[in-house]
Structure to design on (93 residues):
């Protein structure tokens, strides 16, 4: 994980998963973990057809570093992807 994406605390983000030519068993799941790797939110993505999945997740209401992990089972094999994100409080003048 070399890049950290920043979001405002409490933002709702759209999550997508796209695959082609294969079937995901049970649909992909997304979990949000804090710095101690404790799961703070989890969800299953919804299929919109043709290998496209989506979902909306509201981020925590406090500043911090988090890891979002997606997991899907394809032909019995787990596929994982992790991305780092930071939630920040918006500064106003």
């Amino acid at each position: 994980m070399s890049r950290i994406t920043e979001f405002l605390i409490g933002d709702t983000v759209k999550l997508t998963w796209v695959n082609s030519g294969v079937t995901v068993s049970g649909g992909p799941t997304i979990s949000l973990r804090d710095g101690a790797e404790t799961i703070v939110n989890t969800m299953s993505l919804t299929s919109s057809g043709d290998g496209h999945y989506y979902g909306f997740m509201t981020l925590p209401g406090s500043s911090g570093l988090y890891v979002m992990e997606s997991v899907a089972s394809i032909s019995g094999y787990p596929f994982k992807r992790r991305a780092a994100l930071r939630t920040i409080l918006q500064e106003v003048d």
Residues 4-88 form a domain with the Immunoglobulin-like fold (CATH 2.60.40.1220). Strands lie at 4-8, 12-18, 24-33, 39-44, 46-49, 52-58, 64-74, 77-88. The mean pLDDT is 88. Residues 27 and 45 are 6 Å apart (CA to CA).
